[in-house]
Amino acid sequence: MRILANLLWILCGGFISWCAWMIAGLLWCVTIVGIPVGMQCFKLASISFNPFGKEVENEGGCFSFLLNLVWFLVSGIELAFINFVIGCLLCITIVGIPFGKQFFKIAKVALMPFGTTVRRVHFA
Predict the structure, then answer these.
(1) Strand residues in the chain grouped as ranges (E)
(2) What's the CA angle centered on 27, arms 23 and 28, to 5 degrees?
(3) CB-CB neighbours of 53 under 10 Å
(4) How far is Cα 20 from Cα 88, in angstroms, rounded to an integer?
(5) Residue 26, number of CB atoms within 10 A of its CB
(6) Cβ contact 17:30 at 8 Å
(7) Measured between alpha carbons, how far is 2 from 39 in angstroms, rounded to an integer?
(8) Higher pLDDT, 119 or 15
(9) In the chain, which end has fewer C-beta atoms inside a 10 angstrom radius, N or C?
(10) Are residues 49 and 10 in contact, defined by beta-carbon separation less than 8 angstroms?
């Protein structure tokens, strides 16, 4: 079921979200100072490409807060807005609500990506 949901996810806007994360990562990697931020974008692009069956945990500290502050002002608002708008559009229909909820999860990650870990949820 998770594979089918992730395939439908790509068709319902997941590819757009993934492309936005990849472009943000490439732009951050232009400078040497931004490479760690770009690498985090590439890691979080994976949740944007197939979010079903993954869980997000925030374990930030002081350094993560400072990076999140810079991130929020430079790239976070744009990525969160893109995911929020697509999530709202998908929540118009009953069938799109699970996909919209995943976009809202990614929008939350887009606001504060540092100190965030993504792990796979195993169902029994």
Answers:
(1) 54-58, 116-120
(2) 115
(3) 14
(4) 17
(5) 12
(6) no
(7) 26
(8) 15
(9) C
(10) yes
CA 75-79-85 angle, to 5 degrees, is 150
Interatomic CA distance for residues 61 and 114, integer angstroms: 9
In the numeric block, which tokens belong to residue 121? 């949820």
Q: Are 107 and 88 in contact (CB under 8 A)?
A: no
For residue 16, give the amino acid letter.
I
Token duo for residue 11: 């068709």
Other Cβ atoms within 10 Å of 12 Cβ, number: 20
- The amino acid that residue 77 corresponds to is I
Measuring CA to CA, which residue among 2, 14, 6, 23 is closest to residue 90? Answer: 14
Convert the pLDDT of each residue in 13-70 to its tens digit. 889 889 999 999 999 999 898 898 898 889 888 888 888 878 888 887 778 888 888 8
Written as one letter, the residue type at 76 is: G
26 bridge partner residues: none
